UniProtKB/TrEMBL annotation:
Pfam families: Dsc3_C (PF13373), Dsc3_N (PF10302)
CDD domains, sorted: Ubl_ubiquitin_like
Gene3D superfamilies the record matches: Phosphatidylinositol 3-kinase Catalytic Subunit, Chain A, domain 1
Domain of life: Eukaryota
Protein name: Ubiquitin-like domain-containing protein
Organism in which the protein naturally occurs: Hyphodiscus hymeniophilus
Domain DSC E3 ubiquitin ligase complex subunit 3 ubiquitin-like: 13-96
InterPro entries: Dsc3, Dsc3_C, Dsc3_ub-like_dom, Ubiquitin-like_domsf
Length: 189
């Protein structure tokens, strides 16, 4: 069992601006939750040269005088760091929708998808004999191809490794294929 140790607080970058001609002093406060205003004054003194390090200092933030025992995190209203929890992405075990099921995410209802699939199967049953009818897996791939091609396949795709959707581009479609099959069979006698 893994234990999560709290991360050390990130240092606080403080700019000390003086009312005199002393240039701004940039300081890193290692732990603002444990550092008081008096500790900051001592740190400021340690960074200045004599005689300025002997002057009396008042720390003012947003128009408010900081008391010596104020914690910097409280007096400066530093928001607590966000709680970081280990995030594990859930891996989806459900396969991505295929075929006309992809249209469900596009706003189609299940009834509309079913009707479209029935029409597609009707066309395919006119093109194929029962023993040459594509398997359900191949039918899903054909549905995907039909959607991806935006129904723009004009018959040429079948010869290029695509699917024959029953339209030869001449307007006859599945009926022409069926008549062609009958004519070809009768020539063989």
């Amino acid at each position: 069992m893994a234990s999560f140790a709290p991360e050390p607080p990130s240092p606080l970058r403080v700019t000390v601006r003086f009312t005199t001609s002393i240039p701004d002093l940039l300081l890193d406060i290692p732990d603002p939750n444990e550092t008081t205003a008096i500790a900051l004054k001592h740190l400021v003194r340690s960074k200045l040269d004599a005689p300025t390090n002997k002057h009396r200092y008042r720390l003012i933030h947003s128009g408010k005088l900081l008391k010596d025992d104020d914690l910097l995190s409280t007096a400066l209203k530093i928001p607590p760091p966000p709680l970081e929890l280990p995030i594990q992405k859930e891996k989806s075990t459900a396969p991505a929708p295929r075929g006309f099921d992809r249209l469900l995410s596009g706003g189609f209802t299940p009834a509309e998808v079913n009707q479209l699939r029935l029409q597609f199967l009707s066309i395919q049953s006119n093109i194929h004999t029962p023993d040459t009818m594509p398997s359900p897996e191949v039918l899903r791939r054909m549905e995907d191809a039909w959607i991806d091609d935006n129904a723009g396949n004009t018959g040429a795709g079948a010869g290029e490794g695509g699917f024959d959707f029953g339209d030869d581009g001449l307007g006859g479609g599945a009926l022409d294929d069926l008549l062609w099959g009958i004519s070809w069979a009768s020539c063989g006698r």
